[in-house]
Amino acid sequence: MSEGDVDERTFGDLRVRIDRTLCVGFGDCITEAPEAFVLDESGTAVFVKPEMVERERLLRACDACPVDAITVWNDSGAQIVPASL
After folding, report:
1. Reduced to 3 DSSP states, what percent helix, strand and coil does the chain have, rounded to the nearest 5?
2. CA distance linking residue 70 with residue 81, whole number of Å
3. pTM of the model as a whole
4. Bond before 82 cis per omega within 30 degrees
5. Distance CA 68, CA 71 (A)
6. HEC sequence for 7-46
7. CB 69 within 8 A of CB 30
8. FRET label pair with 4: which of 17, 18, 41, 78, CA 20 to 30 Å apart?
9. Beta-carbon contacts of residue 45 (< 8 Å; ≥ 6 apart)
10. Beta carbons within 8 Å of 23's beta carbon, 6+ residues apart
């Protein structure tokens, strides 16, 4: 995976990563939080202003990804999205 294949940012106590190799552009994250994500010209999700979205809605948007292209960790390093079984 090259650096251009992932976009990772920290917002408050959350570290959010979009794996662009997994994203297929369903747009469920955008439906949940259009302020946070858009599809770029290649049809994959990118960040817009996720810091403008309240924490719980941002987590719902990340969790809405049907292909688990968005991963979220809390400040202690535990993965919270997608939830592990």
Report:
1. 25, 30, 45
2. 7
3. 0.91
4. yes
5. 7
6. EEEEECCEEEEEECCCCCCCCHHHHHCCCCEEECCCCCEE
7. no
8. 78
9. 18, 20, 23, 25, 27, 29, 30, 37, 38, 39, 65, 69, 70
10. 44, 45, 65, 67, 69
Q: Among all chains, which residue has been given the structure tokens 């917002």?
A: 11
pLDDT digits (tens, 9 = 90+) for 9-65: 999 999 999 999 999 999 999 999 999 999 999 999 999 999 999 999 999 999 999
Locate 18 and state its tokens: 């979009």
Kindly list the structural domains of the chain, giving each domain's residue range(s) and its CATH number in brackets, ordered by start.
Answer: 3-81 (3.30.70.20)
Token pair, residue 5, equals 């294949």
Mean pLDDT of the chain: 94
CA distance 35 to 30: 8
